[in-house]
């Protein structure tokens, strides 16, 4: 119930997210995300997902520094479609809000904990939204990166292409559209 309450607060504005951070509650949420019973993990995942949707870049970096990525990735092996969607949303939001200079570090964290393999496996999941989300994450954040490592000459070229393609999406239409849609879904979750 406490995780559910915090998920409602992190569904608010950045000041409300900061209040949860200032109260030093996020380490406990991440602990329960990793070690809690499944229902507690679900509520903790909503809390983190809402934070990634409504938090600032600095607030999102804070939870990345607290090692939120491995527990999110661990939950990608569950069979609960809603839990999978919430965890994918959180990871996708983290990737979208990570500055370009830190993006490789975040993608490496996802790979190191086995998250990339789990995301790839979700491309065969029967739920279309989960398939689409996992496909988009792989396509936007992992495919070009793997291509870049083959040729040193291509690194500077490839690192410029995503800036032109990803930056407008991350700060204009897609960033505003996707969180609004997800936020409405989260409101439904919280109004029981």
TrEMBL record:
Keyword Lipid metabolism belongs to the record: no
KW Transport (keyword) present: yes
Database matches in Pfam families: Arm, Arm_3
Family annotation (SMART domains): ARM
UniProt entry keywords in alphabetical sequence: Protein transport, Transport
Transmembrane regions listed in the UniProt entry: none
Domain of life: Eukaryota
GO biological process: protein transport
Gene3D superfamilies named in the record: Leucine-rich Repeat Variant
Family per record: Belongs to the importin alpha family.
PANTHER family for the chain: IMPORTIN ALPHA
Protein name per its UniProtKB record: Importin alpha
Organism in which the protein naturally occurs: Rotaria socialis
